[in-house]
Design goal:
- It is a single chain.
- This protein is α/β, with parallel strands linked by helices.
- The protein has two domains: about 120 residues, D-Maltodextrin-Binding Protein, domain 2, CATH 3.40.190; about 90 residues, Periplasmic binding protein-like II (D-Maltodextrin-Binding Protein, domain 2), CATH 3.40.190.10.
- Helices cover about 35% and strands about 30% of the residues.
- The chain is built from nine helices and eleven strands.
- Strands 2-3-1-4-11-5 form a six-stranded mixed beta sheet.
- The protein starts with 6 loop residues before the first strand and ends with a helix.
- It binds 1-O-pyrophosphono-5-O-phosphono-alpha-D-ribofuranose.
- The site of 1-O-pyrophosphono-5-O-phosphono-alpha-D-ribofuranose has 13 residues, from strand 9 and helix 7.
Length: about 220
C-alpha cells in the first residue's frame, strides 16, 4: 500500500540541491526533469520510484518538512538550528562543511573574555542567542542582519558577529578573524516525524544507501 504514495523531497535551492541530486544519483535515484535548467516548473516527479522533488529557499526547507508538505528535506545545519523545527535529523551528508563562529577584530577578544554586554550582529539570531545566553551565560544585544554581516564591526554597528566561516577569506579580507567556534556545520537530511513512522521502510532504505555513498 505504502508504495502507491509519493515520497516528497524538499531541497535547499543552489549548491546544496545540486550536491544532493549527485548523491541521490549514486544510489540510483534520478530525476531527469530537474536537469532541464530552462524549466520554470517547481515540482519534479520520478514516476517509477514514486518520488517528488521541489526546490525551496533554504530556511523554508525545515518548515515544509515539519508540516509534512515534504517527507524528507536537505538543508544546512545552520538553517536547521536557526529554524528549530520539529523534525528528525537523520543523516550528515558530509558536504557543505563549514563552521559557525563568533568573529570580529582582534580587539574584541577582551570583551568576550570579560563577559561584557556587547553587540552581536548575525543572520542567525537564534543560534547567537543560544550560544551567548545558554552556553556562555553572557548577556548581549543581538542585532539581526540579512547578509554581508562582516560589515557589522567594520562600520561600528556591532562588536562581533556570529556567522558562517568556510575558507575564512571574507574575514581576512576585511581585517576580521575567528574569535570563538560555536559548532561545525554541514548538509543534513531531515525527516517529517509522522512520515518516519508511516514510511519507515522506504525512508530507512534511502538513509542506509546514502550512508554508504556519503561516508
Ligand atoms: C557566507 C558567510 C560569510 C562567507 C564565509 O556569506 O555569511 O560571509 O559566506 O565564507 P568564507 O569563509 O569562505 O569567506 P554568503 O556568501 O552566503 O553571503 P551573505 O554574506 O549575503 O550571507
Amino acid at each position: 500500500m505504502s508504495n502507491d504514495r509519493y515520497l516528497t523531497f524538499a531541497l535547499a535551492k543552489g549548491r546544496l540541491a545540486e550536491k544532493t541530486l549527485e548523491l541521490l544519483e549514486k544510489i540510483g535515484i534520478t530525476c531527469e526533469e530537474m536537469k532541464d535548467k530552462g524549466s520554470r516548473k517547481l515540482i519534479f516527479v520520478n514516476e517509477e520510484r514514486k518520488l517528488k522533488f521541489f526546490l525551496a529557499k533554504g530556511p523554508d526547507v525545515p518548515t515544509y518538512v515539519e508540516y509534512g508538505a515534504a517527507d524528507i528535506g536537505v538543508a544546512g545545519k545552520d538553517t536547521i538550528l536557526e529554524e528549530n523545527r520539529r523534525v528528525y535529523e537523520v543523516l550528515d551528508l558530509g558536504f557543505g562543511q563549514c563552521r559557525m563562529c563568533v568573529c570580529g577584530p582582534e580587539a574584541a577578544r577582551e570583551l568576550l573574555l570579560h563577559h561584557e554586554r556587547i553587540r552581536v550582529a548575525s543572520k542567525y539570531p537564534v543560534i547567537a542567542r543560544d550560544y551567548f545566553y545558554n552556553k556562555k551565560h553572557q548577556t548581549v544585544d543581538i542585532i539581526k542582519l540579512n547578509g554581508s554581516v562582516e560589515l557589522g564591526p567594520i562600520v561600528g554597528l556591532s562588536d562581533v558577529i556570529v556567522d558562517i566561516v568556510e575558507t575564512g577569506s571574507t574575514l581576512k579580507e576585511n581585517g576580521l578573524g575567528v574569535l570563538e567556534e560555536i559548532c561545525p556545520l554541514s548538509a543534513r537530511m531531515i525527516v517529517n516525524q509522522v512520515s518516519m513512522q508511516m514510511e519507515t521502510e522506504r525512508i530507512r532504505e534511502i538513509i542506509t544507501q546514502l550512508k554508504e555513498v556519503c561516508g
